[in-house]
Give the backbone structure.
Amino acid sequence: MVDTIDTLVEREYAFGFHSDIDTEIAPKGLNEDTVRLISAKKNEPEWMLEWRLGALRHFLTLTEPTWPRVSYPPIDYQDMHYWAAPKPKGPSPTSLDEVDPEIRETFDKLGISLDEQKRLSGVAVDAIIDSVSVATTFKATLAEAGVIFCSFSEAVQDHPELVQKYLGSVVGPRDNYFAALNSAVFSDGSFCFVPAGVRCPMELSTYFRINAENTGQFERTLIVAEEGASVSYLEGCTAPMRDENQLHAAVVELVALDDSSIKYSTVQNWYPGDKNGKGGIYNFVTKRGRAGNRAKISWTQVETGSAITWKYPSVILQGDDSVGEFYSVAVTTNHQQADTGTKMIHIGRNSRSTIVSKGVSAGVAQNSYRGLVKVLRSAEGARNHTQCDSLLMGPDCGAHTFPYVEVRNDTAQIEHEASTTKIGEDQLFYCRQRGLSEEDATNMIVNGFCREVFDELPMEYAVEAQALMRLTLEGAVG
Amino acid sequence: MLSIQNLTASVDDNEILRGIDLDIAPGEVHAIMGPNGSGKSTLSNVLAGREGYEVSGKALFDGADLLSMEPEERAAAGLFLAFQYPVEIPGVGNMYFLRTAVNAVRAGRGEPELSATEFLAEAKEKMAALDMDPAFLSRSVNAGFSGGEKKRNEVLQMSLLQPRLAILDETDSGLDIDALRVVAEGIEALRDGERSMLLITHYPRLLEYVRPDTVHVLQAGRIVREGGPELAHELEESGYGERPVDDTSAPRVSEPESGPDDSDARPQARSLL
């Protein structure tokens, strides 16, 4: 078993290629000039620039948080580019046919077709390379239903009133260190607006790709579901293999008004670094949603990539009878570190939340669950169920659980269940006695362990997640 | 079919099997009986290829060197072990597990895979014979099963996998008399004159339903007596000779044998915070 775990480090990252795309890049450094340059590049209105500058000034007064159970050398925020964009080869494309073939090829290699005809299923994609959204598919179909799905930059130009109304309403520009940084320099991201009573006719997804070197990626995603609306959204991410670490500090805000529902799924596969822990993405992300009366927000995440993952998709259960869910699988191998979990803030009466977290660790990886369940005085009848399971593969990895519970209302019911198991020799032997190879047996056991979470993913991504899992654990046994 | 010569097995310099010789011809049913701690479960684990034992001696399965094969190769060659403590695999559906196992073994034999429909039809038929609710198929492997359900599930797997040699490790323990009858009938139904079986048991009562050709008594890692089915009755009367004879006919409470096999087989700890 130990030998077999050791061979796990030999696994290759399948998406580690770099594309030769002509890139326009801002000078290194974080200051007002950088922020002004980004804002100018994007031709932003004055209010947007002021919002960014406010965030920057606040950021400069903050110090980096040290409470997560992860370790990394200090990040030099001045030694980084804050803007990189594929250089336009002529006027910006007005239709998908005009997208730069190099970019198209990059996404084809990743299995993301930007060609609407070639998409088998009805999933609209917003494709983002480095700092810029390069294509959004199925815009016309969505527009018929009244759904706005576009890059954040376009939203600032075309729907400024919506952006101004909701931007920062869930994660403010002063929310935390990385959120403040993102607010100052965010480059692009996706914007989605589903008007009252509309059920979004297809799955929406954003595909993030880091390509340029020495560049931080800071996207901002804002999803608004008006009263009675519903939408299901998925994000995927990959990056080239590089020796140096790259910073990814994104912000996702979800606004679910009364009776609406937002389902947000993530399959995160940023480059995790090599077997010695060199390189890889620092994934420091703030994700939060606000749920109105009877509204539901569901986060599902499958985290297999990144050198360090630091993220806590959360729900503010503001409305009465609102529902928050968090389903997470975090897999860490080699030197990966993950400190991830959720916050469920119960404000509304009879608000309910469910947390299911599955951590899988192998190699010398460290995997922490950190979660807060907070019930305010107003949250009469609030309920939470938390289940937190860790699976260890091999003797050198670690699993840690940090559950925080703050309850200010006596009627609340809070349950917390946790387990830590080693992948059992007895389970492996049982499967092998029935004819399964050790590798197939391991996959079966790990997939079974994660089943509850995979079941929450949209069908086609559940298949993708299982395939990704297999790839991640390839050579873990053998 | 199975020929064992001078087989020994130790764990941490503690010798558990001290030279076993055993020959099982095609179609024969042998029983191994013995007191707790005599090495019965170790013998079945070593034959199935569980890691963690230092093994010497020889075991030939149809002439092939069994001890050099991986557990899955032994399974593909037609060796099946019904576990004393069947293992729970949460989140993995029983149907999926069974079909994967059947197809893995079929692939090893060069036979085509069974489709989901073909498999389901066969599984349902065999489950009916074992008096099992078809709802079993949609539950996770052994998770939350009662002791009796787990044992039936083992016999179901055996009937689906159609092994050449089946080793049944205390398949009778933990069963009430009705369940024992159903399980025994399931085992008996697989006796076809070709398939060999090795029944490992603490009590003779299983052997009333599945009549062995030969009974071996294992004690302190050695086979100390051999005989026909009548030997089982004799043991019931007189015990294994190691302990005072019980004056009641009630069976002793089964205790797990010591050894690495058992310590691993217990359900995993689950803590409530």
Observations:
- The first helix of chain A runs from residue 2 to 7.
- Confidence is low (pLDDT under 50) at residues 1-11, 117-121 of chain A.
- Chain A has one domain: 2-472.
- Chain A touches chain B through 32 residues (CB under 8 Å).
